[in-house]
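Dear colleagues,

I hope this message finds you well. In preparation for our joint manuscript, I am sending the Phosphoribosylaminoimidazole-succinocarboxamide synthase (Marinospirillum alkaliphilum DSM 21637) sequence together with its predicted structure, so that both groups work from identical material. I would be grateful if you could confirm receipt.
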Amino acid sequence: MEKREELYSGKAKSVFKTDDPDYLILHFRDDTSAFDGKKKEQLERKGKVNNIFNAFIMEKLKAAGIPTHFEQRLNDRESLVKCMQMMPVECVVRNISAGSLVRRLGVEEGLELNPPTFELFLKNDAQGDPMINESLCITFGWATETQLQQMKALTYQVNAILKQLFEEAGLLLVDYKLEFGLFHGQVTLGDEFSPDGCRLWDKATREKLDKDRFRQGLGGVVEAYEEVGRRLGINFD
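The corresponding C-alpha cells are as follows:
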C-alpha cells in the first residue's frame, strides 16, 4: 500500500491517503490535548503505545463480530484503515459515574450505573462537543434513525466485550466514546479505542490509568497506558 499526501491532521492523529481510494493510513502522534485543545503537550512514546493498543482492541472487536475500519497495523505508529464517511456523533457509554456526568448532575464519582447509560455528543470543538439527542441527529442529518439504532446496538455490544476483557485484567471500564462511519453503506466502527478515549481504573484501588492522568496533572500518563496494556498481554517492544 503506497502512502500518499496528508488528508487531515487532528489533535493526536494524522490521516494520509493511499493509492487505494478505499483505504487510509492513520499516523499516531505523541501530541496530547484536553479541554477542547486548551491543554496541550507532547508525551514521548504515546503515539506508538496508542497505535499498538488500538490495534489489539480492534482485533478483539473484529473477532467478536464488530464491523471496524481497522485493517492492520503497519508499523509502530501507523495503521491501515478503511476510508469511511464519518458521522459527526460520539456515542458514549458510562458504566461508572465520572467526568462530565458528575459535573452535570452533581452525583458522586464512582457510582456503579445499572443499567449503563448511553449518551450522544456532537463532534464540534468550537461548540465544546455539546450533548445532543436522537431527534437532533435526525433533524440535522448527522445520522438517520436506522443508523442511530445500529450505532447504539454496536456500542452496547462493544461494552459487553470490553468490560469482560478489562475485568479479567483487573481493570474497570468506567466509560468510553466511540465514533462511527459508513463504509459502502454499512455502519462501521471508526477512529480508535485507547486510554485517550475511555476511562480505566484499577479494580482494587480505583487508581486512574487513562487520560484523566493528563487532564488532572497526575503524571505518568504513558506509563499508565503501558500498564493497562501489559495487563492485557500487549507487547509494546
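For the figure legend, we might mention the following. The chain has two domains: 3-82, 85-220. The domain at 3-82 is CATH 3.30.200.20 (Phosphorylase Kinase; domain 1).

With kind regards,
E.M.
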